[in-house]
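thread: overnight batch results

M.L. [08:02]
morning all. the overnight job finished for the chain we discussed friday. pasting input first so we're all looking at the same thing
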Amino acid sequence: MNITKDGLIKVRVVPNSSKSELIEVEGKLKLYLKAVPEKGKANREVIKFFKKKFNLKVKIKSGEKSRQKVLQVLE
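M.L. [08:03]
and the structure it wrote out:
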């Protein structure tokens, strides 16, 4: 996973997928989510995914209404 020295992760989110998984395509992260992109469900799923899978506490720094998101790793 590409975490910058500032603690940022850039990820492209694909909501409404058959399963939730993170893959790397040509050096870029792509996160497939089961959640639908309405009422913040997909955003909450992004945060839960990183907590459960990598034990990382993250917040969405930018891209709340976009598929391209920048996540900030919290301590």
